[in-house]
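We emphasize that the prediction below concerns an isolated chain of 343 residues; any contacts that depend on oligomerization or on bound cofactors are therefore not represented. The input was used exactly as deposited, without trimming of termini.
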Amino acid sequence: MSDTAGPAAKTVRRDARARPTLKDIAFMTGLGVATVSRALKDAPDIGEDTKERVRLVAKQIGYHPNRAGVRLRTGKTNVISIVLHHHDDIADFMPHLMFGVSEALVGSPYHLIMTPYFVDGDPMDPVLYVVESGSADGIIISRIEPKDARVRYLHDRGFPFVTHGRTELGFDHAFHDFDNEAYAREAVQWLAGRGRRRVALLGPPSNLTFARHTSDGFLQGITQHDLDEVPVHATIDSPPAAIVAETKRLMRGRNRPDGLVCSGPAAALAAMIGIEESGMTVGAEIDVVTKQSSEIKFRPAMHTIKEDHRGAGRALAKAVMALIDGEDPGSVQTIDAPGVVTA
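Result of the prediction step, given as a token string:
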């Protein structure tokens, strides 16, 4: 088949593939290349009308700074890395957190990359990679432990980082956290108000800091309301089948719980399956309380207390950008209360 498009069409296709440059913006705005560059960097000596005109043209032609060039000139990557574990609740936690981080980065020079790790991997590996390769200007990490080696390493290296959770390392670092102690205490209080007397906690793995906070709040609640604790031999990280089996064991036991506090909605759903397969009904023989970030409940029978993962993402992104800009880590620490939406 002959090529009937002609030289003009070929030229158009070649131009369409070309990457827009500062020279293109300068030509279209009638400004100098240096003025365009300074306007895009929000230089104080450039008027707001000029900046807006340059930004509008840049957006229209799809201009993006060449990150390799930016790195050569400034030493910065304009990248923020978020390290996530495969156990992070894929239905509730991860998408909302990532959306919140992305929201906060809109209009900033930063791009987001996700660095995953898995149960059989060393959680230090992705952190070492980001720092030693210089592939990001700042990092967000989660699943924090009281004496987290990643936090100590990042602190000692002076690398900008923020944690989703707190540590007990004895030095200030930036963090955003949810008040899991208050959550568990309020959950038990709600169960007590429903007349429940034997309550169980399906909580986080004991190595994580928020497991301690959750356990403290749970124990405060059962002490305050003079309730009995029913031990659970599973965590929210246990495989769903294991949670179902453990729930069935509990519900068929002589001292079965009539109230369950759960630290995550996916695990709560597995527990509900175990309850139903035991021939019992949530809201009748037992009540279940869990956290939830989205507005849509998985099961109306469950009582949910809001944890704003999307707001947490925004807070974490704003914190790490502030640290990159030189903010003191001790001044970038926030805690959300149950049901409170982060601005």
